[in-house]
Amino acid sequence: MPADAKDRPVYVISVAAELVDMHPQTLRLYERKRLIRPGRSSGKTRLYSERDIEHLREIRRLTQELGVNLAGVEEVMRLQHELDDLQGEFEAEIERLEDELREQAAAPQPLEQGGRLDPRDRPVYVISIAAELVDMHPQTLRLYERKQLIRPGRSSGKTRLYSERDIDHLREIRRLTQELGVNLAGVEEIMRLRHQLEGARSQMEGNVRRLQQDITDRMTGWRTLPAPQDEAGDGPEDDPAPEQEAGELTR
């Protein structure tokens, strides 16, 4: 199903509630918590899309199967909405770049050198320092790695090395567990989405850079094409010089 079709609001609240086996009042509660974002008809009637239905089923899975509390669900759905919005931004940017290419607009600014590692992703902290920075026991960091909540790098000697981004992730895990009371299953879902969001954003930026480079290359190619030659051979360059004509007449 195309992305725009999945976002089309079509189901009234009673039908949406039946599709996900929930009470309509529960859907209203989830909307107030901004877990879902139904559309509105011209008469202000709530209308739910296929994507809303998917989100509601995910909420039910988190709460009923994984036992995630509402604070954890809010974090999961916030990240899911960010992913949805990022996809929309990416599609809009692709459309803008395609328009720019079609209209033969001015060449973009020079691009930054691709392939450079973000300084925040550079692995620099050994596990003892990382644990001290986030006020956790090193064994806790090892547990979070086994759960794939964080993904530290390795030195050539296989020593764990944590980046600034890993430190941010560990602080986020501590906030979720200690401040919001989210269980480990909920934290796993949240961090999975965080990794997915960061990966999607990085991929989008890479795709946009490649498209911009393609535009630059094509624009450069258009500017360096040779001038078209007159196929009939009667252009100014094909006419004999006056001196040549006069010489031939006197022979």
UniProtKB/TrEMBL annotation:
Key words of the record: Coiled coil, DNA-binding
Keyword Coiled coil in record: yes
Residues in coiled coil: 76-107
Domain of life: Bacteria
Stored SUPFAM superfamilies: Putative DNA-binding domain
SMART domains tied to this protein: HTH_MERR
Signal peptide stretch: none
PROSITE patterns in UniProt: HTH_MERR_2
Domain (HTH merR-type): residue spans on this chain: 10-79, 124-193
Bias (Acidic residues) ranges: 231-251
Record-given protein name: Helix-turn-helix transcriptional regulator
UniProt source species: Deinococcus rhizophilus
